[in-house]
Amino acid sequence: MGMKKKVLYWFPRILSIIFILFLSVFSFDVFDSCNGFFDCALGLFMHNILSIILLILLIISWKHELIGAIVFALAGVLYMGMILINILSNPFEWYMLSYSLIISGPAFVTGLLWFLNWKNRKKLKKNKK
């Protein structure tokens, strides 16, 4: 396997893990307001539901790259939609645009890399026949 193919294989997987960890960092604010172990554990679980779902889908995507492409692109679209709904219901603030780029940008890039990996693998299978 060439270096380019190895990079194309590993980069979406590593970027997905980093993205999920990045989303999980936002859950640490639960420790400011918890009143005991079970309250903290429940709050931490509630804040990390999206990360857990993305982790499960990452495990599935490891073998089925098209699922990763769809899931991460859809995550970016859903977050952009949530920001748009927030902008329409509240006064517009410029920082909301930066939020959408910080969260949805890496999701779109990750989805694109999963798609390129899927396409490359499809091409490799076609050439082997």
Mean pLDDT: 88
Number of helices: 5
Provide the number of structural domains.
1
Largest sheet, described in full?
A: none
Radius of gyration: 18 Å
Helix content: over 70%
User: What proportion of the residues form beta strands (DSSP E)?
Assistant: under 5%
Low-pLDDT parts are none
By secondary-structure content and strand pairing, the structural class works out as mainly alpha
SSE blueprint:
Blueprint: H1 3-25, H2 37-47, H3 49-61, H4 65-89, H5 95-128
Helix pairs in contact: 1-3, 1-5, 3-4, 4-5
Characterise this structure.
The model has no long low-confidence stretch (mean pLDDT 88). The protein has 129 residues and is mainly α. The protein has one domain. Helix content is 82%, strand content 0%. It is built from five helices and no strands.
Quick gist of this model?
With 129 residues, this protein is mainly alpha-helical. The chain is 82% helix and 0% strand.
Primary descriptors:
129 residues; mainly alpha; 5 helices; globular
